[in-house]
Amino acid sequence: MKTELQNIAQKIGELESEADEHKAVIDTLSPLNGDRKCFRLVNGVLLERTVKDVLPALQTNHDGVKNIMNNLVHSYKTKEEEFIAFQKEHNIKVISRS
User: Which PANTHER family does this UniProt record tie to the protein (predicted)?
Assistant: First the structure.
């Protein structure tokens, strides 16, 4: 159970980093002219597009990552509550290894 919690926490951290990267790119592209060309990496292939084509896709991806992250946080909290209840039910004490 503890390993599962750690795995979820790690995935949340990865998604936070990805969301921050998406936000930085969105903030950079937003003030630019829509007809300006930009490049987007998709499955290892660099594609030339315009800002007006890329910006909506980036926003959609950012929103999706945030949504998945929120679901994982909810899942983490639920599993953490189950873990604490399991510890109490079976009288398990956590001993730190120093």
Answer: PREFOLDIN SUBUNIT 2 (PTHR13303)
Q: Which region, left, alpha or beta, applies to residue 44 given φ > 0 means left and ψ of -120 to 50 means alpha?
A: left
Q: Do 38 and 54 contact (CB within 8 A), yes or no?
A: yes
- Enter the tokens of residue 36: 């300006």
Say whether pTM exceeds 0.70. Answer: yes
Going by DSSP bridges, is the β-strand pair 37-42/45-50 parallel, antiparallel, or unpaired? antiparallel
Q: Collect the ranges in the chain with pLDDT lower than 50.
A: none
- What residues make up the domain containing 47? 1-90
Residue 98 lies in a domain: no
Structural domains counted in the chain = 1
3-state secondary structure of 84: helix
The domain that holds 30 is classified in CATH as 1.10.287.370
